[in-house]
Structure formats: C-alpha cells, structure tokens
Amino acid sequence: MIRTFKTHEIRNQIELTNKLWDFSPCEGDLAEKVYQVSTPSCWETYPNFSNYRGEAVYSTHFFAEGNIRLEFKGVSHTATIFLDGVEIGSHYNAYTSFSLIVRNLKRGEHLLEVKADNRFSNESALHIPNDYMSYGGISRPIVLEMIGDLYIQSMQITPFKEKTKWKLEVELLVNNIGTKKERVDLEINIAGQSIKWADIEVDKQSDKKVTQQVSYENINEWSPESPDLYYAKATIYKHGNAVDDLIDRFGFREVSIVENSILLNRKKLRIKGLCRHEDHPQFGCALPYAAIEYDLKIAEHLGANSLRTAHYPNDEVFLDLCDEKGILVWEENHARGLSLEDMQNPNFQKQAANVIKEMIPLHYNHPSIFIWGILNECASHTEYGKECYQRQFELIKKLDQSRPHSFASCQFKTDICFGLPDIVSYNIYPLWYHDTPAKEYLSDLYQWVQEKTDGRGKPFIVSEIGAGAIYGYRNPQNSKWTEDYQAAALKEQIKACMEQPGCSGVYLWQFCDIRVSDEWFGGRPRTMNNKGIVDEYRRRKLAYDVVKQAFESYSSYIEIE
Ligand code: ADA
Question: CA within 20 to 30 Å of 515's CA: 63, 123, 501, 561, which one?
C-alpha cells in the first residue's frame, strides 16, 4: 500500500510494486539465477538469501508515454536505477524516499531495473553493522506517475493558534519541467475554503513557491483522544483546465515548549512511549499494512500514547495510521551509536543531512509527529560531535519551526550538547547493564543535567529504558534474560521515570524483539535484541501486563500547578 488515502485524483498514479518482480543476485553461487519475488520485500526473507549481503537487481516492465515521475519510497540501502538499460539515478539510505523524472518517454513497454546494495563499507556512514538489521531490497513501494510539464512538488501546511483562533500557513511548490515559461492559477481546498493564487508565472525548468495565511472557524482539533484529520487538495489550472493535483492530510494541533513542559494544544503531555524498529521475521523491515496496523493495535492495547521510530524515518503508511489513531510520533533521522571515528567518516555529514532533507518535507504534514530526533547515542561528548549535532539541529529548524527537536544521549554525565536541543533526552539502563536502583540513578542524572549542563530548565525525557528477556525463558532464580526479571525491572523503571519530577515521560526499549547484524551476536542471544515487550512474532512476554497496568495508571496529561 502506498498511503492509506488517495493522494491524486487528476494525476495518474500506478503502484509498480505489490506484484512479482524478477530478482537476480550479483554475487555468489546463485548469481546467474533469476527468481520471482513479491515486492516490496527484503531479500533476507527469500529462501537461500537469509544472510545475503551484496548487490542484486530487481526488474519489471511498465507501459507509459510522455513525462513520468518515478517515486521510490525505500530501497535498502543503496539504489541504482536503470530505465531501458540506461542509468537514470542513484540514492543512498534505505529509509527515505527519492524520485526521478524522465521527460518525453516513447509510447510503449519500458524496462525498469533497480540495483540494490546492502554491503557495509566506508562509502556507507549510516548503514553499518549495528544493533538492528540493515536489510537488502526494495523494501517500500515504487510508484509510477504520468505528469505533464507542470506538477505540484509539495504542499506544506502549518497550523497555529492566535489567541483562540486557528490559522494555517500554507505553502505550495509547483514545478515546470517544460521548455517554456507557463502562467497558471493555483488553488488549495481545505474544509470548504478555497485558497487561490491567480496568474502565477513559472519559468521553464524551474519551480515556484507560493504562500498564504488563512483563518478557520469551528474546526475540530487533532489530539490523541480525538484524532480529527482534514484533507487539503491542491490543483494547478492552465487556461482554466485542471492539469495536476496533490491531496494531503493534516490536523489542527500545536506542539510547544513552555519552560520544562511539552505542550500539545496547550496541555502538558506525559509520554507513555515505546521505541519501535521496523522489523519482523516474515517481512524484514518491509512490513505490509496489516502487520504495521497490528503493531499499532498492540501499542494502543498497552496504553502507549507515543512511538519513537528508532533509529530512522519510517514508512509513510505507519505515519498515516498514527495520524488516524492519534499516536504521537518521535521521528528520528538515521543513526545509531556512531562513535567519533564513525562521525568522522567523510560521507557522514552529507549522508545524515540528506536524510533530514528528505524526511522533513515529506513527513511535514503528519500531525502525529511531534518531535524530530537525531543521532541516537552518537559522540555528543566530543567537540567534533557537537559541531555535527549543531549543524543538524540548525538544518531541522530551517525546514520546520513548528516542532521541537531532541536527541537520545547515552553519554552519562559527559554530554556537552544539551544546550542545542529543545528537549533533553537520555537512554538509561539501570537494572540491566548495571544494578543501580532506577530511581536513584535517574534522579542523580536529572540533578546533574540541571546543575551542570546547558540543558537545565528544558523538558526532559527518558528516551530508552528496558531489560532483556528470552520469550518463554524462566528459571528459579529469576535471573537476567528471564521473563520474570524483565517484568520486574520494567515495573521499577517505569515508576522511576513517571515519578521523577521534571520528567515528561518515557519510551521503553523496546516494542518487539528484533534481528541484529551478525557482527552483534555478543551479548545478544539468538543474534536478536531481546528487550521487546513482545517477541519478534508479537507473542506477549510477562512484562506485557506489567507495562499495560503501569501505562494505564497514568493519564496522557500532567496537571499544571
Ligand atoms: C541503546 C540503543 C538501542 C539499543 C539499546 C540496547 O540505547 O539506542 O539501539 O542498542 O541500547 O539494547 O542496549
């Protein structure tokens, strides 16, 4: 599924995935063979390919004529695209979408080949052997669109409240890929109100941005309790004829920071969250609609009100469903545990910035996203690391001033970056990697942030806490790795976070057990990260009821004295 709603009524859009493609690996004994595989998918889920790390070519045919736009929502992790045997583009990073435009295609059948590469090397600064799996393949949908010379590239809608009145700042970006200047009329329809721009000139081979502010009466606010969504339909008219459109969805809601509180629609939030990887034994990172929805149902049943997309931008279907269900999302750019040396890789800064540039504009209108996160557990205790954090936060603010940002630190009492984010967040593992009581550990750390860092007075979140358990494993001494130990640890950990004055809430590590890179087998029985509240098949561990009971005993808002 591309999205959970239709994004075009005029532009002709066809999903090229959701069917069988030819698949041919480039290395090893199987190199000459061609297999038929369903897409989107990860090749680790094909028989004989569970451990394949290398290059492989996927191919299919499509019928088209004229200008086309191909949108690749996710190829893991490096993609090179060929049309009728000619290379037309390439892209790095599994978790962000990219598009290619080809003009004046001859009428007929065309061959599309996608070469995917999931190898680790110095070229790849973000996909490295890690405590999660970097899969290979066409892991998200590919879409073919027929466009004319004029098309809508993006629409950005920013809701904000002035006194008691809701307003929208709307921005439309249109593109002219033709060879002559065009004059057009533009329109966006939202909740029965039409926003217009007349006689706009768009130069050849260039884009044009238009903006406007509008006020609204009698709207329903979006909130976790009542996730009301509105559609915005943008249209380009040429000589009075509609030639292209784009439909998106948004919600009237406002996220703000006041002193050490995170406010949603001016109410102080308490985060009852889970960190979730896109991972499933049957699908790898390419979870289909029903599997994503199933995960969200579990999160809701557990009483969670938020999910953290550790450690990369997620599938748009996931975000659509969070919008619909009223689940708040901390969405994160792609990085986990990069050391100073990793961050000094000459490709790091550019590759990480590209993820942000691709993630924010595309996901901007999702009301569920309330925090942008970056660089989980990287070298935020070093001067060079600090420069990188600063650059990325500046980039985020350039692209979006309407949401706060944060990063999850693991630098215990050595972090030097807390002056940079809007929210201070820490990943801590008392009762797992060490045995200090959770309450004692957290209150000591919180006090250090307040007394010794530039993060003092800012909102504070525990962005990870948790313990491991192997599904079904129990022993008389309730040792680490038993379900009993995990349940007891989580109970104490959640209580400590919820009762820590100044703490806005917690994201538990983690939603489900996940596969990790082979290199990470040490300390990871089954070569899995086993800290899930459910296992990889979504079977409940003993901790499930403990988490549910704890989450349900706290409301989503904190009373402001
Ligand atoms: C870190 C990290 C997670 C995971 C976790 C763990 O905090 O952010 O990705 O590795 O630790 O299980 O130890």
Answer: 123
pTM given for the model: 0.98
Measured in angstroms, how far is the CA atom of residue 444 from the centroid of ligand 1?
21
Contacts 24+ apart (CB under 8 A), 260-264: 260/457, 260/458, 260/459, 260/460, 260/502, 260/504, 261/459, 261/504, 261/558, 261/560, 262/370, 262/371, 262/404, 262/423, 262/459, 262/504, 264/223, 264/224, 264/328, 264/370
The Å distance, Cα 258 to ligand 1 centre, comes to 30
Pocket test for ligand 1, best of 128, 131, 465 (most atoms within 8 A of CB): 131
For the segment 429-474, what is each residue's pLDDT rounded down to a tens digit? 999 999 999 999 999 999 999 999 999 999 999 999 999 999 999 9
Q: Please tell me the distance between residue 35's alpha carbon and the centre of ligand 1 in angstroms.
A: 36
Taking the centre of ligand 1 as the mean of its atom positions, its distance from the CA of residue 131, in whole angstroms, is 7
Dist. CA 510 → ligand 1 center (Å): 9
Residue 377 one-letter amino acid = E
Q: Which whole-number Å values give the CA distances from 393 to 354, 363, 369, in the listed order?
A: 13, 17, 16
How much is the average pLDDT of 358-377? 98
Q: Name the residue among 212, 143, 147, 213 with its Cα closest to residue 175.
A: 147
Token pair listed for 90: 């390439």
Give burial (CB, 10 Å; 0-12/13-18/19+) of 215. Answer: exposed
User: Which residues, judged by CB distance below 6 Å to any ligand atom, belong to the binding site of ligand 1?
Assistant: 131, 310, 336, 376-377, 410, 427, 464, 509, 529, 531
